[in-house]
Amino acid sequence: MSKAVVLLSGGLDSATCLAIANDAGFESHALTFRYGQRHAVEVEASRRIAENLKVHNHVIVDIDLRQFGGSALTGDGEVPKDRTDQAMNEEIPVTYVPARNTIFLSYALAWAEVLNASNVFIGVNAVDYSGYPDCRPEYIQAFSAVANLATKAAVEGRRMKIHTPLIDLSKAGIIRRGTSLGVDYSLTTSCYDPVNGAACGACDACRLRLRGFAEAGLTDPAEYANIRE
Asked: Cα 214 to the chain's mean position, in Å?
């Protein structure tokens, strides 16, 4: 089996991405980050998902992006609630964590080299998302170019591939795909501002998730502290 490093946050998208990697026949090695995020409950969710989807191994890396701040997820700023679709599409929100995917992919790339793996999976999405610049296809293309310039493995002929199987899917499409692969979404968490472990129901991530389940004709099994239409 070919090995793959799969970035696993504990959310809906990354769980689906892991299931897709497994279904494609890869030996999956899951990588999670505890980076000082206010929604650190996602780290425990990643443990549940990794066990449920039977990854080969699961590494949780500790880094502290709170030292830099610059995001409502790594600082004291308020997480936006009840934003309109127009607002989500027109501006990059304060929940954007500076260079987060670049940092995560760099770690994944390093681990892939050590594992003699040529494949990295990341669950970025450019359809139903909050406008983060490091979720766009052109960013992934650029990072792929860097990966194949910066690694010993690529220079010696083992080129690295960054897989983004969710990039063009709607949230409903992602949920349908994961459901078809047996993903247990009750194990996942997506909320940026959980309340005693329960999702707030009002942040961008919650609203996109709830709408995705509704459009897929399914019920979201996550626990919500306050459901808002």
From this structure: 21
The pTM assigned to this predicted structure is: 0.94
Instruction: Look at residue 228 in the predicted model and tell me its pLDDT.
Output: 47
How far is residue 18's CA from residue 89's CA, in Å, rounded to a whole number? 27
The pLDDT of residue 229: 43
Grouping H, G, I as helix, E, B as strand and the rest as coil, residue 4 is strand
Count of C-beta atoms within a 10 Å radius of residue 65 = 20
Specify the amino acid at residue 27: E
Domains of the chain: residue spans and CATH: 3-190 (3.40.50.620)
Gap between the Cα atoms of 210 and 222, Å rounded: 10
* Contacts of residue 86, Cβ cutoff 8 Å, sequence gap at least 6: none
CA-atom Rg of the chain in angstroms: 17
Taking the C-alpha atoms of residue 44 and residue 48, their distance in angstroms, rounded to an integer, is: 7
Strand order in the sheet with 119-121: 57-62, 27-34, 3-7, 119-121, 161-163
Q: How many residues does the chain have?
A: 229
- Check residue 127 and give its pLDDT: 84
Number of neighbouring beta carbons within 10 Å of residue 165? 21
What number of helices (H) and strands (E) belong to the chain? Answer: 8, 5
Query: Both tokens of residue 42?
Result: 């996602």
For the chain, list residues with pLDDT below 70: 130, 226-229
To the nearest 10°, the Cα dihedral for 203, 205, 9, 153? -130
User: Tokens standing for 106?
Assistant: 């760099």
